[in-house]
Design goal:
- The chain is α/β, with parallel strands linked by helices and about 160 residues long.
- It has a single domain, classed as Rossmann fold, CATH 3.40.50.
- A 4-stranded parallel sheet has the order 2-1-3-4, with helices on both faces.
- The longest helix is centred in the first third of the chain and has 15 residues.
- The radius of gyration is 15 Å and the shape is globular.
- It starts with a strand and ends with a helix.
Length: about 160
């Protein structure tokens, strides 16, 4: 049974999130990649209202400006709140500046990125120790917390 949905704008973002989330959490998740920010919000609204399951959206912030990031989160919440049934949690997470930049926080994975021809190959070559280190990234921790907490209670 589906416990929650994770939505992003790109397949490579989903691949990275799948690689970094603990397997115990991903078995009952459904991952969706859409084509752009507006379609992410539309898909999330539909999933919230039709499926009544928790939804988490993970997007690129495309900025490091805290005020702009907060404004984007506020706008997303304003768009999704009317679609969310009572007691069905949703969360909007913005990766600063991008989801792929998570790989740049660890020197070994930064080198891995340089040695691969594309992001997908780099993700496929992550070692278990690199994954463990990257799982400590604040965005991944927040995602794990949401999926372990509120999302599990609703399912």
């Amino acid at each position: 049974m589906t416990t929650a949905y994770i939505l992003t704008e790109r397949e490579t973002d989903l691949a990275l999130l799948r690689a970094l989330l603990p397997a115990a959490l991903t078995s009952d998740l459904v991952f969706y990649a859409t084509r752009g920010r507006s379609s992410v919000y539309s898909a999330a609204g539909t999933l919230l209202s039709d499926r009544a399951r928790p939804v988490v959206i993970v997007l690129d912030a495309e900025t490091e400006n805290a005020a702009e990031i907060q404004e984007k989160i506020s706008l997303a919440n304003t768009l999704l709140l009317p679609a969310a049934p009572l007691n069905v949690p949703f969360k909007v997470l913005l990766a600063v500046p991008t989801i792929a930049s998570i790989l740049m926080t660890e020197p070994a994975t930064e080198e891995l990125l340089k040695s691969q021809t594309n992001l997908s190959e780099a993700i496929n070559h992550l070692t278990s120790s690199q994954i463990h280190i990257l799982q400590q990234h604040p965005l991944i921790q927040e995602l794990i917390e949401f999926l372990s907490g509120g999302a599990r209670q609703t399912a």
